[in-house]
Design brief:
- The complex is a heterotrimer.
- By secondary structure, chain A is mostly helical.
- Chain A is built from 14 helices and two strands.
- Chain B is globular and about 60 Å long.
- Chain B is built from 13 helices and two strands; from the N terminus they run H-H-H-H-E-H-E-H-H-H-H-H-H-H-H.
- By secondary structure, chain B is mostly helical.
- In chain C, about 45% of the residues are buried.
- Chain C has three domains: about 190 residues, Rossmann fold; about 180 residues, Rossmann fold (3-Layer(aba) Sandwich); about 70 residues, no CATH class.
- Chain C is α/β, with parallel strands linked by helices.
- In chain C, helix 3 packs parallel to helix 5.
- Classes of the chains: A mainly alpha, B mainly alpha, C alpha/beta.
- Chains B and C meet through helix 7 and helix 8 of B and helix 2 and helix 3 of C.
């Protein structure tokens, strides 16, 4: 994963493209089996994701949290951890944002939004760093612990929004108190997509630079490549793991913060819509490269955005997008076997006995 | 309030009864995962398999009116999903834990998708065995209403413990899971053994899912399972890959899951969601307790990647 | 049934291989090799690493398929395509790496290989058979012991017992003594020879230890570069004949003349060190030693006596449970800063797994020690990939690393060149302490000579060298002082001038208190 050559990039692009095509064919067979014309379904997928400005805006609105939750898996993965706690970190970040936000009534806009975002990021960061600490100091498998932490985060949120911080005024929907209206984040210039998208892209780019251009990132790659070599080199492994987990969790927490400040205005079950799990898929599609995450999140955002239209046009259940994501995930993992097998990407010169 | 006359004893009895009633899915999934991990693979996707089993079992029972046929179909659906996992993991450079996550997403998605038409119709439930006839107390009677699947699971735990030591299949499975080098030298086909171990594990997890939809709670909806499949995987670590310990551990987890409803039954409804999260906290606590930063997990098959 | 009582009745087959050739791509691993092993003979297969010994027996055992040539059993041409086929024909292999299942008992491991193992095992009857089998064997093991609790020697015995139990009358022993003490080795090979002389089994012993061949084998075949370079009765050959056959006409530079033994300042002090292994069992127990500038201290010992855990502790890959490590008078906690300040360098065994990142390039692996220092790091933060590459090109030339270039992944390099790469990284600047473990394992003689020369050079420049090796010859050749490690303790120390092979061997077998 550390090879930087152009060939490696091209290889990844080709294999991912093939994985997309295979997934679409499998999905086409599936909808055919259900009695739909696959070409119609493909067309609606296109229509709902990238064909019109309104669908592109919806795609990008979905892509924003995906970029950030993908980082929650990608950054720890570079250090050798398989973290899948993006869903929980997003929820925790969202709840923290609400808790800070309700105290900030009357604060200047920039100060208020900054403080709320920081609260969300720090809460998410600490949440995942806790799993990192359990692994480093106690040997607890981080994949299982982060998955459990997802359930715990969601249960804690339900506990809070059904009692301690419930907004009893809102009768139709169980939700928390709302953040002050004047601190709600609006849309970007030109397109109707909230500022979370810009924050997501900038975060991905910053982390790309950190992971690929700095000595810290190189050290993390050594650790992820072989922990024993990192130990031998005397790298501060525990600290590096905690930092990576914190950065990943903070990104997912930031996603929660913008879901609250820019989309919902409060914490509710609307935070638990699977951005965390789809983020894992984005991270794997990007081969844990933060810059590639931007593109992959937009593509997966398109899949999510077209879900509604698929539902209306074909009367397909809302789980359709989840089926498609699961299918794509499995095909992408299987396609890992293809790396290094395609001769055109293997400069023969590298083959030495 | 019916439980009022028994007071806190009512809670205890309800927790015990709940433990028996709720533990069955844990038991089947953890036995399945034990089989899979004994072969050297981790299937983290059993949560998805469990939900798929619940849906397909329920759907079959709705359509045919035969709950036991539903159990069988649930097992087969679980076996099929796990076969996909097993086949993908046979490819080189594929991480079995990541495939498990993918299967988790795919399995639950597929179950919700295909299960949409079955949310409203009601299916015939699996029958009870009334083992509480001797007691006058309705709480005791209800606590001892036991499903046949629970007894099958218990017998299965004993059988697997025996079979792992006393059958050729058991020895081969353990060899493949403990040392690829030894299995290779003995001429066993490692890939085939692992595929079979994973598929068998998936069958059991699917059956565990059918218990959820056909007996307790006995409905099908998207919130039916909330991580039981995943917790069962963690439970295997705590049970040190021993089927009989899986049985005990399942009872403990069942009791923890039953805590919230039991308290609710005596009128304590505050913090319902927090009590509902008790099994997750318990799992995490047991995981922290069972793990060690210094040494490998006790009893872990040598080739299982979760223990490193 | 595979009953041992039959061992006396069925004679081992006569095994003949004629004109066996095996190619791997452009490389010819075996070139028309012929060998004939009469029933009841003890035949040694001698040769350097890579001479083709393993390939030859793998062609016999069905692991590889020969490109040309035949295998004859009792004069009949026989196709052996798998380990199972070999087992049916009564051929069994005892591997260099143990192939026992660690979590199982002795009894379970014994019956595992049976071709006709029934679906349900009647343990009561089985155990009766196994006990009868054990009673007939020259050495016994408790049927209920778990493999993970057996010593290396006991595991080796069990491997042999397993083959005999499965009915193998023709045993291939692949370097069986590399993990044994000299005493255990003598015992096991002696028992094998007795069984062979009684006509109950035939043995092929793969080895590069001349002493074993001289003491136990009747006949010897020497391989060099895939060809038979000599064959005959051991009694008719002298040791120098066999050496000549093994290495041919090539001669290699002996290690550099050394300057007078250093008695400089103490660089490394280890006091009362205790370390646990992965299972939490004490592997290093109360170990103390001192290492001075300009000397090579060799630690001899049979593999698995805590050497690996000791090196891992010095390398920061394992934590001590008690004791202290003091470097240049200051307690040492293995941080990057301390490693750099104390100029501690390390060449662990299996360097690809212990000191390299497989997926990374040669240049990146060469930068592991100083990527956060100028010139590779700019401003302490930014990585200068051009500088990293330029430095790599320089080191590759200086240490004669054979690689397609600095950007090739390190895992594409041969073992010797991985070793050279790590050595280049560790010795590219001044070193004060060099810790080396089994540096020449699996390398050809040229690479061995070069790496040993660099180690002695470092010593002559004033580095304090700690050499941990399972190769006693290597220890004797390089060390100024020799320590013997057994069961996690230093049990013996001697200056090189007074070193006595027998005495060292005895202490290697010694049990700790």
């Amino acid at each position: 994963m550390t090879g930087t050559g152009f060939m490696n990039t091209m290889e990844a692009v080709a294999i991912n493209a093939a994985a997309f095509v295979i997934t679409m064919v499998l999905f086409g067979l599936y909808v055919t089996w259900l009695g739909h014309n696959p070409l119609d379904v493909y067309y609606v997928l296109w229509l709902g994701s990238f064909a019109r400005q309104i669908s592109i805006e919806s795609t990008l609105t979905n892509a924003a949290p995906l970029m950030l939750t993908a980082l929650c898996t990608a950054i720890p993965a570079r250090a050798g951890l398989l973290v899948i706690g993006g869903e929980g970190a997003l929820v925790v970040g969202g709840v923290a944002t609400v808790l800070v936000g309700v105290l900030l009534s009357g604060a200047p806009f920039l100060v208020g939004v900054t403080l709320m975002s920081l609260a969300g990021a720090i809460a998410g960061g600490l949440w995942i760093a806790f799993a990192g600490a359990l692994r480093q100091y106690r040997g607890v498998n981080e994949t299982i612990s982060t998955l459990l932490l997802n359930y715990i985060a969601i249960a804690v949120m339900y506990h809070l929004i059904t009692g301690p911080i419930r907004d009893w005024e809102r009768v139709l929907k169980t939700s928390s108190w709302s953040i002050p209206e004047e601190l709600r984040v609006g849309a970007l210039p030109l397109v109707d997509v909230h500022w979370g998208l810009a924050v997501g892209i900038v975060t991905c780019l910053i982390l790309y630079v950190v992971m690929r251009k700095t000595t810290f990132g190189f050290g993390v790659d050594v650790l992820g490549g072989n922990q024993r070599a990192a130990q031998m080199a005397g790298l501060p492994i525990n600290k590096m793991v905690l930092i990576c987990c914190f950065m990943g969790g903070a990104a997912a927490g930031l996603a929660g913060a913008f879901e609250v400040t820019a989309v919902h205005g409060f914490a509710s079950e609307s935070l638990v819509v699977g951005f965390g799990y789809a983020g894992i898929l984005v991270a794997f599609l990007s081969r844990q490269n933060p810059a590639a995450i931007i593109l992959m999140a937009i593509i997966l955002g398109g899949v999510a955005a077209s879900g509604g239209l698929l539902q209306r046009r074909f009367d397909l259940p809302d789980a359709t997008t989840q089926v498609l994501q699961g299918l794509l995930f499995m095909v992408v993992l299987a396609s890992n076997a293809a790396y290094g097998r395609l001769n055109i990407f293997q400069p023969a010169a590298w083959r030495t006995a | 309030m019916e439980g009022g006359d028994l007071g806190w004893w009512g809670v205890v009895i309800a927790v015990i009864g709940g433990a028996i009633r709720v533990s069955t899915p844990y038991l089947f999934v953890s036995l399945g995962e034990t089989l899979t991990e004994k072969s050297g693979r981790v299937n983290l996707g059993l949560e998805g398999v469990l939900v798929m089993g619940a849906m397909s079992g329920y759907g079959t029972a709705v359509i045919t009116g035969e709950p036991w046929l539903g159990v069988l179909v649930a097992g087969c659906a679980g076996a099929f999903l796990s076969l996909i996992h097993a086949l993908i993991c046979t490819l080189p450079r594929v991480n079995d834990i990541a495939v498990g996550i993918a299967l988790f997403i795919f399995g639950t998605g597929l179950a919700f998708f295909l299960g949409k038409p079955f949310i409203n119709p009601s299916a015939p439930r699996l029958p009870d065995l009334d083992l509480g006839w001797w007691s006058a107390s309705p709480q005791v009677q209800s606590a001892l209403q036991i499903n046949l699947l629970f007894l099958i699971g218990f017998t299965l735990a004993l059988f697997l413990a025996w079979a792992l030591k006393n059958t050729r299949w058991g020895l081969v499975l353990r060899t493949v899971g403990d040392s690829e080098e030894a299995a290779g030298a003995l001429g066993y086909n490692i890939a085939v053994v692992r595929i079979l171990g994973t598929v068998a594990g998936g069958f059991l997890a699917g059956v565990g899912g059918s218990y959820l939809s056909l007996y307790f709670p006995g409905t099908w909806n998207e919130g039916l399972s909330s991580g039981q499949g995943l917790m069962a995987v963690a439970l295997v670590i705590f049970a040190r890959w021993d089927p009989v310990r899986c049985f005990y551990a399942s009872l403990v987890f069942g009791g923890a899951t039953a805590l919230g409803p039991a308290l609710q039954s005596v009128g304590i409804t505050a913090n319902y969601y927090l009590y509902g999260a008790a099994p997750y906290f318990l799992t995490l606590a047991l995981l922290i307790y069972s793990s060690s930063p210094r040494k490998a997990l006790e009893g872990a098959p040598g080739e299982v990647s979760i223990s490193r | 049934m595979n009953m041992m009582s039959e061992l006396g009745m069925i004679a081992p087959p006569r095994v003949t291989m004629t004109g066996v050739t095996k190619r791997f791509g452009a490389l010819t691993a075996l070139d028309a090799v012929s060998i004939d092993i009469a029933p009841g003979s003890f035949h040694a297969l001698l040769g350097e690493n890579g001479a083709g010994k393993s390939t030859l027996v793998k062609c016999l055992m069905g692991t590889y398929r020969a490109d040309e040539g035949q295998v004859l059993l009792d004069g009949r041409e026989t196709q052996i395509n798998s380990t199972r086929d070999a087992q049916k024909a009564g051929l069994g292999m005892v591997y260099q790496h143990f192939t026992l299942v660690p979590s199982m008992s002795v009894a379970e491991n014994l019956i595992l290989g049976e071709a006709d193992l029934p679906a349900v095992i009647d343990w009561r009857a089985r155990r009766k058979l196994l006990r009868a089998f054990m009673a007939d064997m020259p050495f016994q093991l408790d049927l209920d012991r778990a493999i993970s609790n057996l010593s290396a020697g006991e595991k080796q015995k069990l491997e042999i017992l397993k083959q005999l139990y499965l009915g193998s009358r023709f045993l291939v022993l692949d370097e069986p003594t590399s993990v044994l003490t000299p005493d255990e080795a003598d015992q096991i090979l002696g028992l094998m020879r007795d069984l062979a002389q009684a006509g109950r089994i035939s043995v092929i012993l793969i080895s590069h230890k001349l002493r074993e061949v001289e003491s136990y084998a009747d006949e010897v075949t020497v391989l060099r570069q895939g060809r038979v370079s000599g064959q005959g009765r051991v009694a008719d050959l002298t040791r120098s004949d066999m050496v000549q056959m093994m290495v041919g006409e090539d001669t290699f530079a002996k290690s550099e003349a050394r300057s007078t033994s250093g008695s400089g300042s103490t660089h490394l002090t280890v006091r009362g060190l205790c370390v646990d292994d992965d299972k939490g069992v004490a592997a290093v127990r109360d170990l103390s030693l001192e290492l001075r500038s300009g000397e090579i201290v060799g630690i001899a010992g049979v593999s698995g006596n805590g050497q690996t855990e000791f090196v891992e502790t010095l390398a920061g890959q394992r934590n001590e449970t008690a004791g202290e490590i003091i470097v240049d008078g200051v307690p040492y906690s293995k941080t990057r800063k301390e490693i750099r300040a104390a100029r501690i360098k390390l060449l662990p065994e299996a360097p690809l797994d212990n000191a390299c990142v497989r997926g990374m390039s040669v240049a990146q692996n060469l930068a592991l020690r100083d990527f956060d220092q100028p010139p590779v790091a700019k401003g302490g933060v930014w990585l200068d990939k051009a500088a990293m590459r330029a430095r790599a090109v320089d080191l590759i030339t200086r240490f004669r690393v054979k690689t397609q270039g600095p950007d090739a992944p390190i895992e594409t390099l041969s073992g010797g060149n991985v070793q050279r790469t790590v050595l280049a990284r560790e010795l590219s600047d001044k070193s004060n302490i060099l810790i080396v473990q089994n540096p020449c394992f699996g390398l050809d003689l040229k690479a061995v000579a070069e790496i040993r020369r660099r180690i002695v050079d470092a010593r002559n420049d004033g580095t304090a060298v700690l050499l941990i090796s399972e190769d006693l010859d290597e220890i004797l050749e390089l060390s100024d002082r020799i320590l013997v490690m057994s069961e996690g303790q230093i049990v013996f120390e001697t200056p090189r001038e007074d070193a006595d092979l027998q005495e060292i061997g005895r202490h290697m077998a010694q049990h700790g208190d």
